[in-house]
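Bumping with the actual sequence this time:
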Amino acid sequence: MRYLWLVFLTTLSLCCQATEFTIQVKQPRQTIRHFGASDAWSMQFIGLWQNEVEQLKIADWLFSTANDAQGKPRGIGLSVWRFNLGAGSEEQGRESQINPGTRTECFLTKDGTYDWNQQEGQRKFLRMAKQRGVPHFLAFLNSAPVYFTQNGLATNTGRGGTINLRDDCYDDFARFMATSLKGIEQHDGIHFDYICPVNEPDGHWNWLGPKQEGSPATNREIARLVRETAKEFQKQRLTTQILVNESSDLRCMLGVYKTTWERGNLIRTFFSKDSTATYLGATNNVPRLMVGHSYWTNTPVPYMREIREQLRDTLARYGLRFWQTELCIMSNDEEIGGSGGYDFTMKTALYVARVIHHDLVFADAESWSWWRAVGENYKDGLIRVYTTDHMRSGYAVDSRLMWALGNYSRFVRPGAVRYEVTSPEPFDPYGVMCSAYRNSNGQWVSVVINYSERMQLFSLQLSDQVVRKWQMYRTSDVSGEALKPVGITSGTVTLPPRSITTFVAQ
């Protein structure tokens, strides 16, 4: 059988011309900061499980950069971990109007003191991430603490498009964020590099409960909150950068989409000096950066590239950078059957890898994060958990989706620079897609997606250098191929169908 397979591959190579991809070593693009995922909402439960073996397994899968005895990565080496800073809906119980699985605890108590025993499950995973070498941490909030909101809840309950925050509590909210970050650093040794005070404020839904924590916000409200936060951070001598503004849809950055003008045109609103009421370009602790989510813009497939190139060019005119900070599968992702159920196979993995490629190559994203690290019966988790006793115990199963992200996160490390890749063949989002990076230690890495149902002869080279050996790591539906080392090549190789292969220069 092996002989026949070799004969077939030899015949194929004689009959077909390998498609050449050339890394243009004199055409650097963006610097890659990190790849990540968030702890919402699972880690608050998993971090309290008595079964530490399962906790350690999950932590290794997500954070480890070590290899086993056969040279296979133990994990995907995430380099940024998003921490959901809670608003206190858990303490309200059923009165919160929020589904039990998505409620959060809050460090701030009703009497104004802080309880540093809160969010312990999530904080355990913060510590486990740091122990495994995760270099960056990002805090995000879906709502202000319930003590500061207009309706006393962490959900908007159809109030409308303005922020669910009392007018006299902007400074209180800012103080809460600063105090929480300092408290976590003091008690857990975790320094947060970044915080985003609002999450998806431009969403076209009304955040009707019972659902999850969340609030809309107008651009003027966001600008006011960011300025108050910057002022408080300066007062408390925090270096944490304040990010703007976890947009729910890339189209809201560029214009007005399914919302009103008060929540659209985000790039111009926050970083054009003409927008005097909302300009944040000279605000302390605010980088020249827009962060947003790639939901809803991944279909039709040609539009996925078009909208990202438009975003890239617009950001460049304002001297801004871009991070993609959240994605999972939504109902409009019809190519893979939408969001229902869980998929352990390459179907979802390849679909997401194609989005990663588009965000990095066409939007020049410097950072890329998935939504939930761990989920249940929904295509929103890298890892699937099966739980009992109201999430008090359970066990975890990995997926090809997790390992597909690892083709990037494990080998493209913080500080890597992406380089242009050229090919005589036109770009094909249903065929072979290739991107290339040079890590800060000088090592070249290329991630190659074969989206097609057939084998593809592929050739990789550098424009003015020679790499004699590339170690290959592959993720596919073949048994055992989950970031598996699959041999060394000089650059020309046959890519299996429906696979992702990372080439690491030796």
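The tokens above came from a reply further down the thread. The radius of gyration is 23 Å.
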